[in-house]
Request: fold
Amino acid sequence: MTQSRTAALTERVITALNDYLDEPPATITAETRFEDLGMDSMDIVSMATDLERELDVFIPNEALFEIETIGEAVAQLEALLDKKAEDA
Reply:
């Protein structure tokens, strides 16, 4: 994991959030909770599906519903990308 990849993934998750929020918050950090942004499970699943397609990874449902913060989502995506690279 590199800082530049972490920053790029964080920015991508924030961009995806902006697509699903009626009024995107001005400041989103790694500690921001999806629940605090008013996202329901359908919003999260929809956003995750878009990220899966874009990054060509699969987020297991059990992991998806355990993720609470932006930072946890980025860490999960990084782990999936690392596994994908190892399996290639």
